[in-house]
Design goal:
The chain is an alpha+beta fold and 281 residues long. The chain contains five helices and 16 strands. The chain folds into three domains: 106 residues, Nucleoside Triphosphate Pyrophosphohydrolase (Alpha-Beta Complex), CATH 3.90.79; 26 residues, no CATH class; 124 residues, Nucleoside Triphosphate Pyrophosphohydrolase, CATH 3.90.79. Helices cover 20% and strands 30% of the residues. The two termini are 27 Å apart.
Length: 281
Amino acid sequence: MIQDIGDSFFDNQFRNIQPEAGDTVLCFRDNLLLTNADDDRHYPAYEQVERAAPGGRYTYLFSLNSEKVFLRRGESDAVLEGFAYLRVNMMSTVGSRADALIAATGLHLYRWYRDNHVCGRCGRELEDDGAERMLRCPDCGNMVFPKICPAVIVGVINGNSLLLTSRAGGRAGHFALVSGFTEIGESMERTVEREVMEECGVRVTNIRYYKSQPWGFSGDALMGFYCDAVNTDITVDEHELAQARWVKREDIPVTSVGLSLTEEMIQRFRQLGPDGVLPAD
């Protein structure tokens, strides 16, 4: 998955520091990221960005091992030879998982800074807090933290079959799992029950947690669960889904796990089966 970066260490503790020569800078323009897809170092260094567009405002984001990563605030006007503004999800194909994690997490924080300029309580302009990742209103003291949306990914099991879905308006032939956002006042387990019933008309039991995943591309915190179906008749919510069907373990296409929790959960069921045991040779 996107956060599986081997022996590399991702440190997101806030630091009130400014960039130095050699530090990495993420430059966004209309949700596109300044990237050199053909170079081993995909993102520009601080001195490159300042030569191209001097006088930028920078905020520390996180570190990957000894590499400090900063955000150039606002819509970037930097133009660098060999670099282009590309869609962030391109990094899932042209870079390493660490490169994709940098891009997705940077996009998450870029959108938060971009979308929060004034206090929602009194209308005064917000200011950066120097001690933590937070924006503070100097008048009323309102504190604004990065927005993270909790959501569930659900592998619904019926014996030797898994419930696979495709989103309405999504890519043709692309199958996923039931998913959805947690509502106010709702536990994650209740979200699992509600989303499976709403999207597919299936009641579930034996809900069990698998693992979680940060998904900065959309600002989500994903939590994966497996559960067992009580009934097997499917009633598709056509507003949410194009289709949903039971697929036997041996009929699930073999794919690489890639970056997403969904892909890992599907392939884990294909390999291990409903009981979590490797199938006999």
